Amino acid sequence: MRLILLLGVVSLFGDIIYEGARSVSGPYLLILGASAFTVAWVSGFGEFVGYGVRMLSGYFADRTGSYWTFTLMGYLLIGAIPLLVFAGSWQGAVVLLIMERLGKAIRSPSKDAILSHAAHQVGRGWGFGIHEALDQVGAVAGPLAFAASLALLGGYEEGFALMAIPFVLLVAALGLAWMRIPDPVSLEKGLFNEDGVENYSRILVPYGTFTVLTMAGFAVFPLLAYHFSSHLAIFGAQIPVFFAIAMATDALTALLVGRLYDRAGLAVLVLVPLVNIPLAPLAFSMGYWGALSASVLWGVSMGGQETVLRAALADLTSPGKRGFAYGVFNTLYGGGWFAGSVVFGLLYEFDIVLLIAFAILMQVAAAGAFVWLKKEAENGF
Fold first, then answer.
1. pLDDT digits (tens, 9 = 90+) for 89-101
2. C-beta of residue 115 within 8 angstroms of C-beta of residue 11
3. CA 303/CA 268 separation, integer angstroms
4. Which CATH number fits domain 2-180+197-378: 1.10.357.140, 1.10.10.10, 1.20.1250.20, 1.10.1040.10?
């Protein structure tokens, strides 16, 4: 539990920085001259980089056993966010935003593998749920810090400069976690056959199919924020407040869904596409209150994704293969999100009705893939 809490504090400070920046990246790029398609493409590509490179980083983390090294390197790249003060153009801002996402790709498989070794002692769902809840405390605080900065100082650069403070605290907390438990794999040694991954292999295809489909129909928040600003006249501090609401919902959902997963298993994953179905209609066609409701549902969906997908992978894989397993599935996760974001960006410029139809179709297809996944999982999960 100490390791879970320490990693949760690290993620808390990390989320203050990058979720705070993500809450305003859409309007910030708009001010710098980017189009709606550029915002959607960049956001989706950033998520793809943030997930796609994880397969390589996870593979090499497993081969070398240097989980802490990859974790430390990845977290240091969060320092790109305070440097947005010096961006000067939307192209420069894009480079720094993608650098931060690359850091997430480098650290995430190793961080999740470290966390999984501790989480088995308290319940996979509960362990990942606690971590995600702490993570989202930062995700709430970051957007609120930007909201306060915009309200009091009137500029985005001041908010980015403030992010240097949690970055220093993040590095200190991460160093403490590393020194306290330098060999996290030892927490789980002897509990698994290192070569036994039969369950993982059998449900790889339906699990990956479900992940790709549900993420392809899940809009990135910067596109939602862009729409809120350009079509609903929701400006300034209100946008990061909406994102903070989404992140608070994410935190509460993670705890509830984590407990539910430990009791009911993989079946709770069907909640993700069911929640996503009304999200696009609310966000893009229901006005102010629809936008607020969509922000809440966005947080519910993220809480389910971040808890159940990660917990299930830990239960399905042996310790020596877990970094690569997280990398593979996160590549599919990010690839689906990127592909969907490109389609969202094109349809947003063309016809919002078609955008909504596409989002709903992907979630219905994901629900169908879940039925396939559940049948396979019942045979041995």
1. 888 888 888 888 8
2. no
3. 12
4. 1.20.1250.20
